[in-house]
């Protein structure tokens, strides 16, 4: 199984995924893929077809995650996609970052609408996340907990369109 994840390895979730899946591939600006540009999106379009799993974790401005999801949907015929959301998309947290609330809800709606037999999607809402720099925070999820949930989604024989986890 080939897994592609957008996002920088210095971030909590990609770092943890790299420990759980030693063969996972990452793309971000740090390794020459600027997914914020049309050239970067063309590169993504050309390589995503070779993967069985796509973890849409990028921190792109605006609708960047939605655009990557659309590209994957347009070119992939049999793939599992996990879109990383945030607790900020919930109504009770909308005040904290209204733009993120709107963008992540758009991603969730798109993920659910594209979900099908050959294009399986999961929108994963993640509660508070401890950073790598701060270490253990018993009130927040750590990266490995999130990576293990992602592994469960990937390995599951059933489709999980929507999941919310928090500590």
Keywords:
37% helix, 167 residues, 5 helices, 6 strands, globular
Set out the fold topology:
Elements: E1 3-6, H1 12-20, E2 25-27, H2 38-48, E3 53-56, H3 64-75, E4 79-84, H4 98-114, E5 119-126, H5 143-155, E6 162-165
Parallel strand pairs: 1-2, 1-3, 3-4, 4-5, 5-6
Helix pairs in contact: 1-5, 2-3, 3-4
List the secondary-structure elements in sequence, H or E. Answer: EHEHEHEHEHE
Strand-residue proportion? 15-25%
Secondary structure tally: strands: 6
Helicity level, as a percent range?
25-40%
Tell me the distance between the termini: 29 Å
Description:
The chain has 167 residues and is of the alpha/beta class. It contains 5 helices and 6 strands. A 6-stranded parallel sheet has the order 2-1-3-4-5-6, sandwiched between helices. Helix 3 links the parallel strand 3 and strand 4. Helix 1 packs across helix 5. The radius of gyration is 15 Å and the shape is globular. The chain starts with a strand and ends with a strand.
Outline:
With 167 residues, the protein is of the alpha/beta class. It has helices spanning 12-20, 38-48, 64-75, 98-114, 143-155; strands at 3-6, 25-27, 53-56, 79-84, 119-126, 162-165. A six-stranded parallel sheet has the order 2-1-3-4-5-6, sandwiched between helices.
